[in-house]
């Protein structure tokens, strides 16, 4: 699928008005595995799992800037900008014990790749050419996306060399980096949110009031959040204690509003890591 560069430039010049994450559909296999993990994560487990609360995990990180031309309008960002994004990731994942080891920052000028859409042939071509490391390593592609703030691949059982293996990683709008122009999503937290999907987390509102993200300590939430509306409560009644988790990184709130992962999300990250990504290290 071909795109006109002028379309990308006009999008980059605009201000984002609502968070749009491309991870709207969760693979059935992951949903089934997540349900199994939920059954393992009883309240007793969450309260006594010191192995999770004290655990750490290094993740090798490769940050790619794929741009149209060497201008801000063309999607170009500096090595310093990529370092700032790296620092934000480590700051906000610190509570989970996940820490990123930045191995390389890589610039690639290719106008077609820069604006290639999710699940397109050009996206796959780009990643087959640029992807580094193995299935336990994070490849973050900062580029001028069309209509999205970002998306990530969910973990799955992919053979090395398969299309699913090559596509693994995260694509994030380059202007959402700290100090970028994608107000109010310009504190680098889009990458925090998207990498949460790569680590196995679902949206807090994924299954609505009666489904959610399949994590016990995430309050029920019926709809994604826009802005930072304190007191938002879309699931009411005794069956749904607590207000909506508008400060959770896996909601859609403005960047300034997002501040936390829950202990249950930390458990799910490590359950998912051990199930899908740790075997790559064996």
From TrEMBL:
Leader sequence segment: 1-18
Any one GO biological process: proteolysis
UniProt keyword Lipid metabolism, yes or no: no
Ranges where the Peptidase M43 pregnancy-associated plasma-A domain occurs: 186-271
Short name of any one Pfam family annotated for the protein: Peptidase_M43
UniProtKB keywords: Disulfide bond, Hydrolase, Metal-binding, Metalloprotease, Protease, Signal, Zinc
Superkingdom of origin organism: Eukaryota
SUPFAM superfamilies: Metalloproteases ('zincins'), catalytic domain
Molecular function GO terms recorded: metal ion binding; metallopeptidase activity
Family: Belongs to the peptidase M43B family.
Protein name: Peptidase M43 pregnancy-associated plasma-A domain-containing protein
Organism: Dactylellina haptotyla (strain CBS 200.50)
Native organism taxonomy: Eukaryota, Fungi, Dikarya, Ascomycota, Pezizomycotina
